[in-house]
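User: Please predict the structure of the protein below. I'd like the answer in structure-token form so I can feed it into my own downstream comparison script.

Assistant: Understood. Taking the following sequence of 361 residues as input:
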Amino acid sequence: MIPRAAITAEAARLRGLFEQAGAAPVETAILQPAATLLDLYGEDIRARTYTATDALRGEQMLRPDFTVPVVQMHMENGAEPARYTYSGEVFRRQDDDAERANEYIQVGYEVFQRTDPAQADAEVFALMHRILAPLGLRAATGDIGILTAAVAGLRTTERRKAALLRHIWRPRRFRALIERFAGRAPVPPSRAALLDAADPMADAGPLIGLRSRAEIAARIEVLREDAAAPPISETEVDLIDAILDVRETSVHALGRLRDIAVDMPAILRAVDLLGDRLDALAGRGIDAESLPFEAAYGRTQMEYYDGFVFGFTAEARPDLPPVASGGRYDALTRRLGQGREIPAVGGVIRPGLVLKLEAGT
């Protein structure tokens, strides 16, 4: 086991490198208001966090990451452009993997910059790449923005698109919705009977729960409207699948995505941004010819990523989580900015894993 003092010292070293790159050091509270995280991610976040109740402050969560509080801090009083660095503990439940730590130290670097997102993406990735180069890690990249653009461009109802966008980070649920909206999945008998009934509430009995009779009736009407909507076309489903299947070196992936964009113009702007990013990465010494790209990469991480995503892993240690990861989260600044927004991208390194790999343990 790596001593905590050594991890703290490594965190200080990494934070110093980020400060040298122009980042201002910031601190955030370990206890974060649960209401903010629940509003962003819904009740699902409870499965990944530790909660406590305070008589004065209400429900609190042990900090699951730094990005949300750093964004809140910047949107309240930050100047533009801005670069921040931080280090400290984060807390994540690991109910399905007892071998992984549920408390560990992160060191991060965040860039808030309104112009040239491709250069900002390249800056963060190249800095992480340079710092981690001695470890010989495998880099992985992706772009959630391409898939979200594809969903937003589907010829279907706004409600269906909203549901798909909400579940992009839950691949199984996303796939189930695609199958249902494309008419491939049979309607459950209970739902079919509900929708066929002239008055579904006639024999409902006493109400149980918090929803009113009017709210339940409105939900049934939404289900009826959805059932009457035409299915998503097989062509569009195939194009979504083609995007998700892209897994090549970045240059070849760009070519494949440009081919898909011929039949799905909605993704063209996001694909062009990928091309700009590869040019920016090349300008910073990254070999885009060999850099891996997976269109589905990052879909099981925190939901705030909505564009470029990346990670660095040790191929010889599949038992370890990513040593570093990050991505773009423009939409999060809109959610937390109360009418203001600024494009933002960042990443984190786990110093404990850096030392573990250096020690060969």
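That's the full token string. Residues 4-150+238-359 form a domain with the BirA Bifunctional Protein; domain 2 fold (CATH 3.30.930.10).
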